[in-house]
Design brief:
Chains A, B: Pathway: Amino-acid biosynthesis; L-threonine biosynthesis; L-threonine from L-aspartate: step 3/5; Amino-acid biosynthesis; L-methionine biosynthesis via de novo pathway; L-homoserine from L-aspartate: step 3/3. The structure is a homodimer. By secondary structure, the first copy, chain A, is α/β, with parallel strands linked by helices. Helix content of chain A is about 35%, strand content about 25%. Chain A is built from 14 helices and 18 strands. The mean pLDDT of chain A is about 95. At the A-B interface, helix 2, helix 6, strand 12 and helix 12 of A face helix 2, helix 6, strand 12 and helix 12 of B. Strand 12 of chain A pairs antiparallel with strand 12 of chain B, so a sheet runs across the interface.
Chain lengths: ~425, ~425
């Protein structure tokens, strides 16, 4: 049988992992696909660089276009990242009828709709399991496993860096700044951590998941995003005391074809399975109308999980080639995108207010809550020892985002409320 | 496009769910498959029985063979259960080139290897996702998601009834007998609960999972099984005190192509993600060489999750038909089955001993442990208030099953040890 020929763009840690897995599992892969899989060309930035694996020098090249346009090559694996030149590479590869496997979440979040269309037009496959939660086969699960159900909610911890930081803050009572510094030293956070800590990375992944789950082309700009950089030690302590864990959650919901997608630090009840997902682990909870809650848990990133995920996609793409069914994966976004309004987005909220410590304040606050039709699940007031202020913690029942926004505006204008210190969504 | 024609064997709660989902999701299914899916015949035991759904009378029949042999029908869905006549039905359907979707774990555990072979010979599909953990797409995950990795361990809570019982015993301090009775009243346990509580149901599911994960034909007789009927309140209390949850775990392991599969009540460390899986929920933790630990959590059974799972299989089978790739799913058991010996099966153990309350007993016991090369993680002795006996709790480091068996024989022959009260495997 003719071998499947692969061109690999990038030989960093993930690319190296891909080469290793394809070599070490050659026998197993052959049994699954029915023919050999051979990485024939690898694009690197410097062919003379020292590497941790032995690669035949004639396989290495610095010319990506040469590889993309090589008529011998069936599949392009892209692990170089970036969204401009990389997009050109991938578009050209698809237009030439090659299949593409990528781990590039930025690319898929920004141009996923467009790329899927180009692929379909050319009967090419584009697979991207590794772009979201490397160690969890969540994309194939959404595409295949839920084919007979309607997904109503996808909620998850999809960024390992922020989960590591929040876990450490919770377990050690440490501050955000200290834990971030430690995470950077350990290599869990980038020197410029913005994309992770401000929730942008999670937003990209949630856009990808929402599209697959709800069959509608959610734009990255449709995702409402808040990161963890303003989470305080105090917030974490309150969460703990009240039986919650503070987690950066991506939440995508769909009711009657109206969707909302958001990323924000969220108080998760200890009894909820997602509350015990700690450290760099990821978890995605999918709620189906019929199947109820299903949770997928695993490593979010890391070279080996990501490389494994890429090779699993390579196997799927190779099988499709052998079977002559390339480009037929059903991931059509056949529904128009209708976003929920703030009136329609509903959840419980945690509010932490600093107020004047005098009689009648709590009554005033609860009156405002009632006015905006926000009902209380619990309320707690405690005096500050060293000042004439008090803190009030409110947990609401389900309230609309619009009501909470109006309520907070009113709170900000009230004299007895010195400060709205924290506002968090509550789940579970 | 020609519709896919389905014959349904059985119209109990799951069968009814299948009919409802296929009707309600007709539009979505059509978009996914490319043609309509039509249930044309339903086999029931009494066509005149009152039913909760409206079914055209001419669709109902009491003659299963008529449906199996109907040349119009493409796919048989089997939800009648049983393993004798049902097996004949399925063999005939496959031999006639029809595809089969079944939720029948007993059938697949007993005759899976044989049925897969018959299917392959006839280029027919046989899909059985609903046979294990209805609400978790674990079978397709093992088949597709881990195709590029080597699975070394599959560990799970795969029986909801026993997990419900153990959860209640833990949360309420209730006895096994009381909780079983309650579970029977609530319909969570059968009138004859043997298959669940003695671990047989879990063993069947583990045999199915081990075959898929390790590519080897694990026989049901190869599974070592112990149920929960002898678990005491005291065991649960000790587990709690020591930071463990007692769970009925199925554990399948594979090292260098040698496998072991077992089901037994196991102490699971609270910090392990499986420890927080409570009630009727199921969870399966899959460890891949590269990907590390991945856990899948969801409803284990229930009409809707099971029916949803069946329809997802129906979608997959229908897509394969349209694509002309039926019978090509790779689930080959291409490796010979080599079982681990008791010397090779290794884990930590919890031992609860009733001993004479006098000096030197602990020393004697630790000497025996050393003799059998079993090292201690922790040991705890406490006197019984109302007798001159004491209890010793030992948690070992990793020890071979063979060493523990010999050790227990020795313990049983020692005068100072009145009774080996409990022995549990420990995980996490």
């Amino acid at each position: 049988m003719k071998p499947i020929k692969v061109g690999l763009l990038g030989l960093g840690t993930v690319g190296t992992g891909v080469v290793r897995i394809v070599e070490n599992h050659q026998e197993d892969l052959k049994k699954q696909v029915g023919s050999e899989i051979e990485i024939v060309k690898i694009v690197v930035s410097d062919v003379n660089k020292q590497r941790s694996i032995a690669v035949a020098p004639d396989k290495l090249t610095e010319d990506a276009w040469e590889v993309i346009r090589n008529p011998e090559i069936d599949v392009i694996i892209e692990v170089i990242g970036g969204t401009t030149t990389t997009k050109e590479y991938i578009v050209e590869a698809l237009n030439l009828g090659k299949h593409v496997v990528t781990a590039n979440k930025d690319l898929m979040a920004l141009y996923g709709g467009e790329l899927l269309e180009i692929a379909q037009r050319n009967s090419s496959d584009i697979y991207y399991e590794a772009s979201v939660a490397g160690g969890i086969p969540i994309i194939r699960t959404l595409v295949d496993g839920f084919s007979s159900d309607r997904i109503t909610k996808i909620m998850g911890i999809v960024n390992g860096t922020t989960n590591y930081i929040l876990t450490k803050m919770t377990q050690e009572g440490a501050s955000y700044a200290d834990v971030l510094k430690e995470a950077q030293e350990l290599g869990y956070a980038e020197a410029d951590p913005t994309s992770d800590v401000e929730g942008l990375d999670a937003a990209r992944k949630m856009a990808i998941l929402a599209r697959l789950g709800f069959h509608t082309n959610v734009d990255l700009n449709d995702v409402s995003v808040k990161g963890i950089s303003s989470v305080t030690k105090e917030d974490i302590q309150y969460a703990k005391r009240l039986g919650y864990q503070l987690k950066l959650l991506g939440i995508a919901e769909c009711d009657e074809n109206q969707v909302s997608v958001s990323v924000q630090p969220t108080m998760v009840s200890n009894s909820h399975p997602i509350a015990s997902v700690n450290g760099v682990f990821n978890a995605v909870l999918v709620t189906g109308e019929a199947v109820g809650e299903t949770m997928f848990y695993g490593a979010g990133a890391g070279e080996l999980p990501t490389a494994t995920s890429i090779v699993a996609d390579l196997v799927a793409v190779s099988k499709n080639m052998k079977l002559g069914i390339s480009g037929k994966r059903v991931n059509a976004m056949y529904k128009p995108t209708v976003l929920k309004t703030d009136e329609q987005i509903s959840s419980k909220y945690f509010l932490l207010l600093e107020v004047a410590d005098r009689a009648g304040v709590l009554a005033q606050i609860t009156q405002e809550l009632a006015k905006f039709d926000v009902s209380l699940q619990s309320v707690l007031q405690q005096a500050n020892e060293h000042s004439n202020t008090a803190e009030i913690i409110v947990i609401t029942h389900d309230a609309s985002k619009a009501a909470i926004t109006s309520l907070l505006e009113t709170f900000n204008s009230m004299d007895v409320i010195h400060q709205v210190k924290s506002v968090y969504r509550v789940e579970g």
